[in-house]
């Protein structure tokens, strides 16, 4: 007798599943560590660390720019003491850790390596490094295009990336030193063709830079290609998205073979992780997000020959605010049901030989090649960033998508169709449906920073930072100097500040001036234009709108779309891009004599930054200039903002930009006592 049925005995062996991760980190290192260990106990097989915006952009928590941002969208890690707390009781030599970090990637990898050395005092540091496995995102080009957490100019950022790649190939061979990230390109509006093309252009620029640096021999260059990984987005059009992944596989194999002469097919393999689409998650009827997430997960798992190596899923309520541990558990269980209950992993590729799939893949490859050739003719990805070409193309694509949604040509269930709904028990208490970041996190981080500086050897830190600055002025690999700074006790802000002094800073093109907005003015937009024009004539001047991004939040897609639609509606638009202090926004409002200020914040720092702008306008004598706010703002916060003097608050459920423009005109009229 056996305990299995005949059908069970005949089942084929399952393939190994993908790494299952949850993108997580919040408030403090201690709270994040507890969350990581809990998730690992629930069956998560890898870590994916979210850092807060000051850490991502190289500021310590006591910086003026960090105000309101500490611990909001991730965990603050400003020195080695916090890195130790983050991975307490988590053996780093046995873990696979993904760190979503870009401009400061070298610094965070150095602290991660030092933390692993400290966990293994009896092991040679070189042996510890050889055991480390994981990924640093480290794709700075997409930061200039979409995410906004860049620090240094492109050429210097590329130097840091090249140094990291060369170091890891020789010292941390199981580490993926860069995760070329098309995820945020899709969030910024990229079509599948643009997502493929711009990712490949980024990869070409990185590989060319590593080759030109001379730090890796020709014999070892295949190892560089083999450690390049990608981080991809998957939208709800899951057949097209699955074909996109097959197109990625085909094109990467061709580029690495023909351009770089890599003979080993294993080194040419397209290796990618994925977080499925957050752009398509809706605040309206958010329960629909669960089936969206499942469809998006299928796009990157169904096709064996183009299957993700690691998957992390958003939570159903991310359009409402910060997910709770239970929400993250739900997303993890979606992966586990597919991997362990279904028979997906028992079969070869389901789509080989499909004429429909082959035709769609060929179409995507051909379109991507055309766009790659266009960018390469400009001088490559860096040149296309400097010129603003890629940014303008993304803003235009996003504008077309939004226009299609508003027109009803692209259906979003629960948003622009099938909007009648029963009350949802999931959102009956909206304040309880999300997690609130610890309001004491900023003060705790400042206290940790102060205590750390009081206990360290300041002379050793100064010496290490001086050596880092000196090395940055040469062509030396900066990883060793960065490791020395971490061991000496330098802080995140000090490391980045030292390199800012040498490399300078950078402001990326916004893409708004060159973007194509509404192709045709329908009746609704035409009516708003007339109202804008008439109001301007009554005031004796063209209406001017300042669109501001206070704080460190680099998610500029919403602000860009508002700016483009406002321009289409007849406003004169002032948009200076991301990462401004409230004081700078107030100064711009005074200098431009604007009629309305629109603030976009998605990092959760609205309750800190918006009142600072409102108060600043009052102090500058512009208390009558209305302020409107857009972002992921819980209902209770929206009421508090309006009570404090904000004229209107818009959240993701307010998808019609033209209706928002109509509202803004009326806000201006009311503020100016026009009947």
From TrEMBL:
A Pfam family recorded for this sequence: B12-binding
Record-linked InterPro entries: Acid_CoA_mut_C (IPR006159), Cbl-dep_enz_cat (IPR016176), Cobalamin-bd (IPR006158), Cobalamin-bd_sf (IPR036724), MeMalonylCoA_mutase_a/b_cat (IPR006099), MMCoA_mutase_a_cat (IPR006098)
Keyword Electron transport: no
Keyword check for Manganese: no
NCBIfam families membership: acid_CoA_mut_C, acid_CoA_mut_N
Family: Belongs to the methylmalonyl-CoA mutase family.
Protein name: Protein meaA
Species whose genome carries this gene: Nocardioides turkmenicus
